[in-house]
Amino acid sequence: MKRFLAVFWSLAILSVYSVDASRPVKVACIGDSITYGFGAGDRDTQSYPARLQALLGEGYEVGNFGKNGATLLRRAYRPYFDQVEFRQAMDFAGDICVIHLGVNDTDPRAWPNYRDDFVGDYLALIDSCKAANPDARIIIALLSPLADRHHRFMSGTKIWHEDIQEAIKVVAEKAGCELVDFHTPLYPYPWHIPDAIHPDEEGYGILAKTVYSQITGDYGGLSVSMLYSDNMILQRRRPIEISGMANAGDKVSVKLGRKTLKTETGLDGKWKVEFPPMEAATGLELRISTKEKALEYSNVAIGEVWLCSGQSNMRYALGLAKGGKEAAEASTDPDLRFFDQWPYWETYDVAWPESAVDSVKNLIYLRPATWKTASPKTSSGMSAIGYWFAKELRDSLKVPVGIICDAVGGATAESWIDRNTLETKFPVILRDWINNDFIQDWARERAAKNVSYKKGDKFARHPYEPCYLFESAILPLGHPTLAGVLWYQGESNAHNFEAHEWLFPLLVDSWREWFRDPEMPFLYVQLSSLNRPSWTWFRDSQRRLLECRPNLGMVVSSDLGDPTDVHYKDKKPVGERLARLALKGSYGFDLVPSGPLFKSATVSGGEVTVEFEHGDGLKPSTGTEVIGFELAGKDMLFHKAACRLEGDRAVISCPEVKEPVYVRYAWEPYTRANLVNAAGLPASTFRVELDKTF
């Protein structure tokens, strides 16, 4: 298919240049108000056709035949076929026709009534362009984005917009014409669509560059994602995809170790090759080349690759952790490697300079990084949890282990979820987010402080904003194959566990889709102990979220917290507990994966018997008595309860509660509850109503 596209592109270019060399190549831009240049200020210089003319230069003549409000559908309220601009475009007889129509067809007067006509009407428009110039090269565009601020976004427009995108793909296949994507380049930049429909001048510039690359095949030459560098690790025992961009029609050669694969870029400049799965290896060379350019990477390894993400407790550096300086000094290991991105600006309680606010608005927030090998000079800045997790895997698997760390202090869960997921499943969280109660007030206040130099800019952006970190941190990684994800986040969502119970499954789904692995392990850390009153409820919610999706795992950290410091220093047990989950679930090791998890409870004679998963060898971690259990009757007034251990069961009783209705454990924000299993792993916080146990 790629070879076909490359040949098609070459023939298309030849056909364009086969016109009379004494005149410029004519480019007809056909469309609605977005082609016209509505909102561009001076449309004669700032509309996308005008910007395209500047990019293409004297060898081209670009005609703007956009009509405000035009529909593609001929039976809708303002069909393009009936407009003077249509007749002008046909008289122009473009050698290249770029068509962008369909945005106005999302109107309830159009798509709901006449959707069955869309493909036929679009094909008729293409036929008209061909009748005007039989040699015309036809390029049709996927629709530019509609922002969630659009007044009809949730009343049908978003769904109809998606339906039309799919119909346009059908048209392109049926007509055998080219497809250019106006959606993806603009989608992460909603502020470039200030009225929710029309791009601003910078947005029109993005569209012009997109069309320029499609017409000329110039995508800036060979390039790959930031994850490619010396010392990189690729996932073992899975097909190894190497991908990137180059100019259309370029022949790309990729050599990994002793094997070489070749391909050609398509019209969109994209290319990829796929090597068969490989076992663990080190010292490989990766060379990617075209005729004009070569990229070479040394000391490439094949091993296990995990992504660490979340907020500051995952970001917390090894050198600051308990025992971390000593661990860093002893960390020399060429096959423990990490790719560590740090923010340009931390989210401290300060106003960022105007230059920082502008950069963040343009998704420039994390510093570029390269893969590094563990050593005393490099490891102290690495995620402490990530380091101890990786070290445990290295010791157990004896293969190279790579950690990608993208974690941001104070980050909200919603900031890591892709835009389309939130637009579809939780759109209300996108609306006026700086004043949105779904988002924790601390996060909103800190964001407002950071961007206060741009107080009048309603489109100023911040890392805590919904979608932001997905767009600035995850999207640039591309689609690497991962062994799994380690997640430590929740402190900035603990005010509203009910909202988080919507968000967390969406996060898992979002990342599994992005990384193209519907069963990707997602291992997360339950919040620790801290004197914040909502944390008991949040920890219990995290426990219950284990059942929301398959292939999840949770480690308990409530025994490690600090009553006044959210950044407790003892991170080694957390990394090792995450490694236990991975070694059991992903690598088949025979070990206890976690501490006791509530399974069921029964009442008999005023006593409550609680059974646990992973409850073998229940015991107190300190002293001789288990502490942390409480009982309540229907009055919901809880009293401390005694605990008697019987194998993998705990028998709970309390003289003040004759008829127990509720049982809970470790139900204090900062808890000293001490129940562990034979492996010494702590039990999770839980609260259940006895006739509704889960």
Give a count of the beta strands, DSSP E runs of length 2 or more. Answer: 28
Strand content: 15-25%
CATH homology-level superfamily of the largest domain: SGNH hydrolase
Shape designation:
globular
Q: Please report the number of helical segments.
A: 19
What can be said about the biggest beta sheet? 11 strands, mixed
Nearest-integer average pLDDT: 95
CATH class of the largest domain: Alpha Beta
Low-confidence stretches: 1-18
CATH fold-level assignment of the largest domain: Rossmann fold
- CATH second-level architecture of the largest domain: 3-Layer(aba) Sandwich
Which range best describes the helical content: under 10%, 10-25%, 25-40%, 40-55%, 55-70% or over 70%?
25-40%
The helix/strand class is alpha/beta
Radius of gyration, CA atoms, in whole angstroms: 29 Å
Number of domains: 3
What does this protein structure show overall?
By secondary structure, this protein is an alpha/beta fold. The protein folds into three domains: 2-216, SGNH hydrolase (Rossmann fold); 339-430 and 446-451 and 472-585, 3-Layer(aba) Sandwich (Rossmann fold); 597-692, Immunoglobulin-like (Sandwich). The protein is 28% helix and 23% strand. It has 19 helices and 28 strands. A hairpin with a 2-residue loop joins strand 8 and strand 9. Helix 4 (48-56) crosses helix 9 and helix 7 crosses helix 8. The model is unreliable at 1-18 (pLDDT under 50).
Task: Write a short abstract of this structure.
By secondary structure, the chain is α/β, with parallel strands linked by helices.
What's the layout of helices and strands?
Elements: H1 2-17, E1 25-31, H2 33-36, H3 43-46, H4 48-56, E2 60-66, H5 84-92, E3 96-100, H6 111-114, H7 118-132, E4 137-142, H8 157-175, E5 178-181, H9 201-216, E6 233-235, E7 240-245, E8 251-256, E9 259-264, E10 270-275, E11 281-289, E12 294-310, H10 312-315, H11 324-329, E13 333-340, H12 354-361, E14 371-374, H13 384-397, E15 401-407, H14 419-425, H15 441-450, H16 468-474, E16 484-488, H17 497-514, E17 522-525, H18 535-544, E18 552-555, H19 572-585, E19 597-604, E20 607-613, E21 619-620, E22 629-632, E23 638-640, E24 642-646, E25 649-653, E26 662-665, E27 675-676, E28 686-689
Helix pairs in contact: 4-9, 5-7, 7-8, 13-19
